[in-house]
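User: Assemble these into one structure.

Assistant: Restating your components, then the assembled model:
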Amino acid sequence: MKRYELIVIGAGPAGLSAAIEAAKVGMEVIVFDENARPGGQLFKQIHKFFGSKEHRAKVRGFKIGEDLLKEAEEAGVTVQLNATVVGLYPEKEVNVRIGDEIKHIKGDSVIIATGASEAVVNFPGWTLPGVIGAGAAQTMMNLHHIQPGKKVLMLGSGNVGLVVSYQLLQAGCEVAALVDAAPKIGGYGVHAAKVSRCGVPFYLSHTIKEVEGTDCVTGVTIAEVDSSFQFIPGTEKHFDVDTVCLAVGLNPMSQLAEMAQCQMEDNPKKAGFVPVADEYGRTSVDGIYVAGDVSGIEEASSAMIEGRIAGISVARDFEYVSEEEFKEKVEGFEAALGSLRQGMFAPENRGKNIEKTEEGIAVSKNLLKKGYLEEEVFTFPGVKKIKGLHPVIECTQNIPCNPCQDACPKGCIKIGEKITSLPDVDENSQCVGCGMCVASCSGQAIFLVNEDTGDGMGTVTLPYEFLPLPKVGDKGTALSRKGEKICEAEVVDIRTSPAYDHTSLLTMRVPSEFVMNARFYTG
Amino acid sequence: MEKLQDRFADIGEFIPQQDDDVIVCRCEEITKGEIRKAVHEGIFTIGEMRRYLRNGMGLCQGQTCGKMVKGIMARELGIRPMDLTPATARAPMRPMEMKILANDRSGD
């Protein structure tokens, strides 16, 4: 029986990170993954990640995946693909199917980093072709470059539902509606806002009643639900769609941990049935560790740090690093993880109703219920009326993200020490219009605005991630935060730059009175 | 370990519901009504339900429907979903052809 010092199950963000840390200090590591490609879900993520500058914020997910693979290769990690782990036992024996054989391999230690699978809900018609998971839609669009459908209804307003809705729009699909049974939007407000301004309506406290079709989806009926999630008669709404996308959460794939007799718990804060683990990822079974979504659903950024902690913990437990080295490393990782777990969307705040921001400003109810800000946008520190060109930052929830602060060469934007604080625009600083803040915002919530260019007109510069790009001189329509056509707009500048990382900056000229409302352009 | 279920608990009569014919486990084509009925026939644990109806025994091994089955059973029994022990995890974790199982250890 072949023996390894460390076997990692799953080559996603957590597994690869764990393998890298252990291999870097000299452990012999093998990673098994059942897929044909490594990276887990990272290569489907074409959006810029949130977080701090030190931890890859504003870098797109697939780029983080590429860098992780390179780091793994340099560290000497072996990744065996198309290798399905079908059994795991407390003695750390691993059964892995490779090709037409099952191999028995023994590990001195095992890190389970199997991630999660998509949850579903059922309703009449849910087995029709055309009802797909949001992850499947991402795979089709971002890996295989095909549209999942022409007209899509999205169920689920968590970050996955919001991000994938936006990607569907980018892929040229029409998104008919974004629906959630919950009374408020589950994901980041900035993600909702960028979908809203493209004209996608949100239906909160609504869910799918029925999907119609004989051979495939031809339509869907949604209806409002009351506080106990029962349909309210007479509230039905129908949409002609060919695709229904489900983004209703993730289930940890924790069966291997259970098979290995790790102590398990059903923990709503971790979004499912997960192995009990300490802060270093150690389960109740000696030598078996967990990292990433399998131990509780979070973002990929957190999974990568959890992976590094588990990797270095294994190395410490097998005396590949001294206690001092371990402490030094793990303190850095824990600080980073701690900062990612702050703010309104922290795991400890799941299910809580937060009324005020850390700054004491009332949280926008419109944003939570309709997906866009209205007049209350002016109550936030990033939105100020200033003479001349200046950034307008429509960032209104405490989320752990701060790249905009360092993006401004003139120091116009301040977040401060606390990564979750809302960005504040300094009235006295001189904006030079470089646009670095606009491109740096993963939530696409920063605009450069000049309310009055002298002739009753003004300009709005907005982040634009659609192709083909409009051309300078094009005349079209400005859309409001809600996605409603509000006035004519002329494209006066289009900027692209490697520093913007595929976010283009579109500047449109609109009448002054519309400058603080015009937030998107359509040809 | 299975949590102890009260076999004598009064869960009332089986009352047909409008969506009883909606499929829950699509691999084995088991409906919501079949699962609810089985509870009234005395199937109180997830392990028993899998043996009785074969839900969660198909291609995806319950990865898709597991949570839904749990929810339906819990509602029928009048308990919290987390009070139902999930199905026992066993090798092989993924369905596979018998010939591969037969190849066991041939590479050693």
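The mean pLDDT of chain B is 89.
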